[in-house]
Amino acid sequence: MTETTRGPVGRKGKGPRKGLRMRRVNTTAGTHPYDTLEWERRDVVMTNWRDGTVNFEQRGVEFPVPWSVNATQIVASKYFRGAVGTPEREWSLKQLIDRVVGVYTETGRAHGYFASEEDAEVFDHELKYALAHQLFSFNSPVWFNVGTSAKAQVSACFILSVDDNMESILDWYKEEGLIFKGGSGAGVNLSRIRSSKELLSSGGAASGPVSFMRGADASAGTIKSGGATRRAAKMVVLDVDHPDIEEFVETKSREEHKIRALRDAGFDVDLGGDDMFSVQYQNANNSVRVSDAFMRAVETGSEFGLTSRTTGEVIATVDAKDLFHRMARAAWECADPGIQYDGTIQDWHTNPETGRISASNPCSEYLSLDDSSCNLASVNLLKFLREDDTFDVEGFTRLTELVITAMDISITFADFPTDKIGETTRAYRQLGIGYANLGALLMATGHAYDSEGGRAVAAAITSLMTGAAYRRSAELAGVVGPYEGYRRNEQAHKRVMRKHAAANDDLRTVGALEDPVHEAATKEWAECLKLGERHGWRNAQASLLAPTGTIGFMMDCDTTGIEPDFSLVKYKKLVGGGSMQIVNQAIPRALKNLGYQDEQAEAIVEYVAENGHVVEAPSLRPEHYEVFDCAMGRRYIEPMGHVRMMAATQPFLSGAISKTVNVPEEATVADLEHIYYEGWRLGLKALAVYRDNCKVGQPLSTARSEGRDEGKEEVPRVVEVPRPVRRRLPKKRPSETTSFSVGGAEGYITAGSYPDDGLGEVFMKLGKQGSTLAGVMDAFSIAISIALQYGVPLETYVEKFTNMRFDPAGMTDDPDIRMAQSVVDYIFRRLALDHLPYEERAALGVLSASEREARLNGEDPAQTAVQVESYAQSAAPAEAPASPREERSEPRAPRVAPSEGFIADAPLCITCGTKMRPSGSCYACEGCGATSGCS
């Protein structure tokens, strides 16, 4: 796509200079890139999940025919600029791409990036082609701001700094607020602030960093609600040798105990609930920065010293293994803190002479100097899988160098929220190219995600991407000069480049797919080192793996970032409204690559469509099951499978990886300790763990005998346990019948009550009379009815059966309950709304839309008369662990069937109400593209 020329090129009075020769790859001279696609007009109408009203409408928008309805809606509603209904409003994807690419091309032309006008035109056309064909995407701030009257903020990731004085702390509050106002996120390390165990210069006791976190948390909680584009996100880091580290570790787990207590007392602690304001530290991800010395102390069970921030002396010691256990236990309880491995981070740091890397962005993929930012872009890997199932090495390499060129140009024209961030970013020019659709690529080519072959493919592609990126960075240095801080850090930067190249040499391929990729990567690293020795490099950092939330939907990616496939069956939006269930397109391709005949593949696909998994699918050999393992479902990828994939790609990235390792609810604290330890041993830079349902439910009871006299023999007592008595319904009793449709399956619920109120029987009809399904439902109805008559509370069933996931599922015909994850999920939500009082339903998280609306309007939801279910606000309580102050033990939560996956307590989209799905360490909405903090 490009090559460097030594020919002169004018630079507006700065004399002759070299420029880039751009080579056409996807475009043809004389043909505009938009003419390579068929375009059509579409209507975008997005409705409110609460009441069905239209919250966005733009008719007649123009998009390429291959773009999905979902991608069209997300781009039109989030990225088009101008007031809707005015002539200034953008209405075509061509206008959007032209607005952005025009600025890049003009800036590159003005600053000497191109050898000639013809090269500038080639750059312009190739970039437009790549964007229109969904080969890659810039991060969201580019689409929001570039080419508009707003400041051209192009970065999604920021790192701030805080010193040990009140002025700096107040500046932190202000700078973070400005970043949140723009819809981005920031991270900060608070370890410079003296601990609560040290004195102020005046002689008084210091507050410590945790106390200042309260003010920043309140600020973030206020500003996020006004964000026009997405929720604000933040990261708070504390070094493991800080004297307040124990308080920091348990900060959020203690708040989780408070949340449960408030909920049990009847307070509204749902997502966005009125009473959540009293809960602190909920707007940040917390991470502990652990050193190699600490991890070695954990291995040996040694004491570890905590050092004064003012004198540098050790003022206390802790048992390293015990502190590590408390980190894992807190994460077991509430998913925080995560861990950042300082030794690995600093070992791969290209600018140590300028300063240490002390913090990260909110999702931990960007790690760099304080007061800096990073511009991100992600490549759609599946676009480079050819029809013959080989990887387009040449096309991928050329696209990488095109994207790196564009990203570097963006730093030249970009604006920044603070002067310090602008100065650092312009001096070090950090970039973050990454990719999406790795999981889909692996499945399509018949590779299990958790396999040597899958990891080899991922590692080779990542190595090629970073090698090509840094090779292009060296070429840019020869054209427009290296970054300002390069000479000061020259030896360190070269050392890190050699480490990347050495890791590539150590990479062992196991299959035919990655062999040519690795061969190309080896050539790229050799050329990178040669050019870098001559010119230096233009960018201090080049690559990382971001979560690719919204832009992943924009590119119609099946999987985001480095994640595996989410599930084997998804819902596809249709033109004109509605949706249909489809089996992932990677499955037929995978079956073909695995050697199955067309007839066998059709039968397997049909089985997956009906069951959502491949277990016992006709003709499918059990040894191939692992190819179809997903993030959730009956066969889900084990936690260490995620860690091993991260370890395979980490040596080939400048930054880190945005990914949360999901673990099942029944995992123990020891399991999390093992994961955190293996993350260090395998060379990761950062790691976060999330245990399913850890943020919901009652604490576990660790009851002990009280008042027992030691030394006395205990006499066993026989206690007569009263048997429950069945309370039968009278011959004549009130009843109510409700018809329903869930995912196209129709049925009826007949609920009979006692005359003095109280549900006493439930009969559920589904399927044809005499069918297996109808018989099972009859038996289930009888069991539930008898249990109700023996005194089992309805709320117990609501707690257990809501959120149960199986087909049929999806849209319902009940205006009260818009979506259901299964027929059973729908039935017990309906029964809760019809037969439980508001207080009990609120405790269970089952609220009606009218009650939610009343709450938003500041009214009393308990007075709402219309019981209209809001599925988007439901969340079933689950059990939670005992206080970490209890005697050290291995708590174990009740087992949840793996088929329920790891998203039972995922947040609900604040825009459209759809349950979000994991995207790295954040969440993304498939309905409207909104994210919980990352682009």
Task: Provide a brief overview of the structure.
Residues 9-23 have a biased composition (Basic residues). This protein has 935 residues and is α/β, with parallel strands linked by helices.
Question: What report would you give on this structure?
Answer:
- The chain is of the alpha/beta class and 935 residues long.
- Among the domains are: 1-133, no CATH class; 568-629, no CATH class; 735-873, no CATH class.
- The strands form nine sheets. Strands 5, 6, 7, 8, 9, 12, 15, 16, 19 and 20 form a ten-stranded mixed β-sheet that branches. Strands 21-22-23 form a three-stranded antiparallel β-sheet. It has a two-stranded antiparallel sheet with strand order 1-2.
- Helix 10 (320-334) crosses helix 22.
- The longest helix has 29 residues, at 452-480.
- Residues 155-690 form the Ribonucleotide reductase large subunit C-terminal domain.
Low-pLDDT residue intervals, each spanning 5 or more residues: 4-16, 225-230, 696-721, 865-902
Compute the number of strand runs: 27
State the secondary-structure class.
alpha/beta
Sheet bearing the most strands, described?
10 strands, mixed
Q: Which overall shape is indicated by the principal axes computed on the Cα atoms?
A: globular
Termini gap:
27 Å
What share of residues are in beta strands?
15-25%
Helix content: 25-40%
Mean pLDDT: 85
Q: What is the CA-based Rg, rounded?
A: 29 Å
Alpha plus pi helix count: 27
Biased composition (Basic and acidic residues): 884-893
Region (Disordered): 1-23, 869-897
Cofactor: adenosylcob(III)alamin
GO molecular function, one term: ribonucleoside-diphosphate reductase activity, thioredoxin disulfide as acceptor
